[in-house]
Design brief:
heterodimer, A: about 450 residues, Rossmann fold, 22 helices, about 50% helix, B: about 200 residues, five-stranded parallel β-sheet, binds iron/sulfur cluster, 4Fe-4S (chain A), iron (chain A), metal ion binding (chain A), 4Fe-4S ferredoxin (chain A), repeat (chain A)
Chain lengths: ~450, ~200
């Protein structure tokens, strides 16, 4: 953690070195965004649903301690053991203890961004435990010893030929075969053996219901279910903000989640776990890891409403062209950029600046988080604390002076437009950090202010 | 202090002022049940669908279409003529050779093609996920329009916890390799719906 790490701009530059890949990444994510639009437009009540979801989550945040206690009591009544973890380290130790109790050194795991946040795999590996990630995308990045680059599409930055090579090396598939159908089938066969032989399975949690003590896990692949139903011990790890008050609220959230995430009407499996099956142990770990403190920050607490659909990433012009790894955080993209500074302000000070503040993220967010406003507010907090990314600081200082003096702003804007229209190369140069990898847009002939002055008389 | 007490204490300090829950009632009953929508949607998400008259008709279809798969198992005693029913209490791991599993869901959801089924109808939880092919019976009369209506129905059907329940919508799938959709990830590679009256 103490190693100096590279900032977003620098990592993005690395990703941008391969132009074809960037274009492909950009287009693929935009295609998913369009699929989302298509299905969303079929529901006239969409905005009403988003508003309702946002309000339910607001209610949850204002009663989180009560709902947690209600959930705990109901889950215990259902025969589930409930653990509380203040941070990632405590979470990891609880998992390790449960594995040791079973005397096993292997475990299957389905997708859980929380365990990425807690760095569970690294911790367990050091204790000699082998973790097999069973979501296909996560398995691919795990074999490649990489973290996922997207919360819903973990290997969205990988090309099929590279996956073919990886599988050739690790699963013995024929060299040069890059057919997605064939490769998926090879992974299915390999992972089937893991499902059949592992005694402990860990899953994430999409929603937990205070009223009933049950929790819901959504997958398309069926890997969470294969793991859980064939295990002797099922461990479910969840961030404490995953609670919802009543079961009927799942109607709202399950309608929003997958439409927002991938443009599907629902995931293939929405599994409601309430009791362990006879003879099985079921454990839930409630993880705080900074969330309870975050709740106290009025301007930023809304980010705890996130249901991890990934829509804000798919739509983000910066994410699409810089890749998930440039965010150097378990959760990338716009939402990652407002969550990360909360954990470590110094290390993640560059992330709120990795945005154009276009607001597209806030427009698609199914729980109406004011993501771009929070990015802007983080910048103010970070600037005040003296944490601004190196490259943008000089330019920002000029901007700050300009913006604080309306007279200079008008002149500077006018000059800027004249320069841009006549000698764009002067602005599109290396000294302008916004220019890297992009042509500056054509400058409008007049500013809004000039247009307004001229037209208001009409 | 334990982590539990620590977390709760910090939460109590930091929770914003209480906000009331919104009314979700208006969403229930908002749309009419539309069986055609269910059929179309289920096909769009990768499923196959037959309209069957009764169990005998289901058996007929299975004999014709699933003849290539001798290892059939079912949760339904009505279909014991065509599929094995002696697996109810075996170790679930031994079910991995199941080629076709036939079960009956409680109801279907028109807006997304999903069906709701609980542990009781599954007999064993793994049985719905481990076979190569899943055949699901559901009655047209059971359909609800949206997920809001689905949870109204669930509240009517189950008083108390159901152990395990799931919405299942089509075959298992993944698009993790370059976003190419592949049916058959870890669960069944196909799902066939038998829509009864
Ligand atoms: S912030 Fe909103 S859009 Fe982004 S992942 Fe979370 S819920 Fe989805």
């Amino acid at each position: 953690m103490n190693q100096p790490h590279k900032e977003h701009a620098e990592l993005a530059e690395k990703f941008n070195a391969d132009e074809d890949r960037v274009n492909w990444h950009d287009e693929t994510l935009w295609w998913i965004r369009q699929k989302r639009d298509k299905i969303v437009w079929q529901l006239p009540e969409w905005e009403q649903l988003r508003e309702t979801a946002s309000q339910i989550k607001h209610n949850v945040l204002s009663h989180l301690s009560e709902y947690l206690l209600e959930f705990e009591a109901n889950a215990q009544k259902n025969g589930v053991t409930v653990h509380w973890a203040a941070n990632g380290e405590e979470h990891n130790k609880i998992v390790y203890k449960l594995l040791k109790e079973q005397g096993v050194t292997q475990m299957v795991k389905s997708k859980s961004m929380l365990t990425e946040e807690c760095h569970l795999n690294e911790f367990l590996e050091k204790q000699g435990i082998e973790v097999v990630d069973t979501d296909l995308g996560e398995r691919i990045v795990q074999l490649a010893k990489e973290p996922p680059s997207h919360i819903v599409l973990p290997c969205i930055h990988w090309k099929k030929e590279e996956i073919g090579e990886l599988f050739h090396k690790f699963l013995g598939t024929p060299e040069g075969n890059a057919d997605p159908q064939f490769l998926t089938h090879a992974a299915r066969l390999a992972l089937r053996q893991d499902f059949l032989t592992r005694k402990v399975a860990l899953t994430g949690v999409n929603f937990a219901v205070a009223e009933t003590g049950e929790f819901v896990v959504c997958t398309n692949e069926g890997n969470a279910d294969m793991g859980a139903h064939l295990s002797n011990v099922h461990i479910a790890s969840m961030g404490i903000e995953k609670l919802i008050p009543k079961r009927k609220h799942l109607g709202v959230f399950l309608r929003l989640l997958t439409r927002s995430a991938t443009g599907q009407p629902i995931t293939t499996y929405s599994s409601h776990f309430s009791k362990p099956r006879p003879g099985q142990q079921m454990h839930i770990i409630l993880v705080d890891n900074g969330r309870s403190v975050h709740l106290g920050k009025e301007e930023f607490r809304n980010s705890l409403k996130c249901i991890r659909c990934g829509a804000c990433m798919n739509t983000c012009p910066v994410y699409r062209r810089s890749g998930g790894h440039s965010y150097h955080n378990a959760v990338a993209g716009p939402i990652g950029s407002i969550l990360a500074p909360n954990f470590d302000m110094r290390k993640n000070a560059d992330l709120p600046f990795a945005s154009t503040l276009c607001g597209s993220c806030s427009n698609v967010c199914p729980v109406k988080i004011d993501i771009h406003d929070q990015l802007y507010k983080w910048r103010q907090v970070l600037a005040k604390e003296g944490h601004t990314p190196k490259a943008k600081t000089a330019a920002m200082k000029v901007m700050a002076v300009t913006l604080s003096k309306p007279g200079i702003f008008t002149v500077a804007g006018k000059m800027g437009r004249i320069v841009m229209r006549n000698v764009p190369g002067l602005v599109n140069n290396k000294l302008n950090p916004w220019f890297k990898q992009r042509e500056m847009p054509e400058a409008p002939k007049e500013s809004f202010r000039e247009w307004y002055q001229k037209n208001r008389k009409k | 202090m334990s982590s539990r007490e620590d977390i709760l204490k910090t939460l109590r300090q930091n929770q914003p002022p209480a906000v009331a829950l919104p009314d979700t009632q208006p969403f229930a009953g908002m749309k009419p049940v539309n069986a055609d929508q269910f059929i179309q949607t289920f096909k769009t998400i990768g499923g196959a669908l037959y309209e069957a008259r009764d169990y005998a008709h289901v058996e007929e279809i299975l004999r014709a279409d699933f003849a290539a798969f001798p290892l059939k198992r079912t949760t339904l005693p009505q279909l014991s003529g065509i599929a094995d029913t002696s697996w109810f209490t075996v170790d679930p791991h031994t079910l991995h050779d199941t080629e076709v599993m036939i079960a009956e869901a409680l109801f279907g959801v028109c807006e997304n093609g999903a069906v709701w089924i609980t542990e009781q109808q599954m007999v064993q939880r793994a049985a719905m996920f481990i076979p190569e092919h899943l055949v699901m019976l559901v009655s047209k009369a059971s359909l609800v329009a949206t997920m809001h209506d689905a949870y109204v129905r669930i509240a009517e059907l189950h008083n108390g916890p159901y152990g395990f329940g799931a919405f299942i919508a089509g075959p298992s799938k993944t698009a993790d390799i370059e976003q190419s959709l592949v049916l058959g990830a870890h669960g069944p590679r196909t799902m066939t719906m038998m829509l009864l009256p």
